Amino acid sequence: MFSNPFASVPSLSPSLACCHRGPGVATFRGFLPLAALFRRLFREGREAENAQRKKKIMKTNTNSDSRLQNRTAQRMETQLPRINFARRHRNRGLPTESLLNLIRREAPEFWELAQVVGKWVWIQFEGRQPSQITAALSEFGFHWNNRRQVWQHPCGTFTSSSNQDPRRKYRSYFPADANLV
Prior knowledge:
By secondary structure, the protein is α+β, with helices and mostly antiparallel strands. The chain has helices at 14-17, 34-58, 71-77, 85-92, 96-106, 108-111, 131-140, 166-169, 175-180, and strands at residues 27-28, 32-33, 114-117, 120-123, 143-145, 150-153, 172-173. It folds into 2 domains: 14-58; 85-180, no CATH class. It contains 9 helices and 7 strands. The strands form 2 sheets. A 5-stranded antiparallel sheet has the order 5-6-4-3-7. A hairpin with a 2-residue loop joins strand 3 (114-117) and strand 4. The longest helix has 25 residues, at 34-58. The radius of gyration is 36 Å and the shape is elongated.
């Protein structure tokens, strides 16, 4: 509870005490020091301003005729191809030769692009691929390496990442070119 600032000034009434400049304390309205009053005023002003800002943000004008949609709604229209994750898991453990035979038999378009780097198989495209191709690569057990911009298959040999280019460290060749000779 607040102490009475007028205890030291018995001759003044509370209405006149608001103008009294006592020993370092100026009071106003209900015995609040001016600094506390200003803090309260400015805080309330910012809270009201923030509340108005929140209201503006929360208002949405929906137009049912508009064909513009958010990203989630856009994705829902185009159904992504399904991936058989059991097959993906099985294919991740295949050795290099078995994976190359599987790709040659089931996806000849990937066979032409496949590059063997050490024991891993890499597939690299010029641009971005459609979702059907990424789903097929994923089902074969490939994963995307963002740093090298290639699809990679570990062929059962899981290693940690390296800063150097594996093509310089390990033997690298294209199996489609090797079969032509």
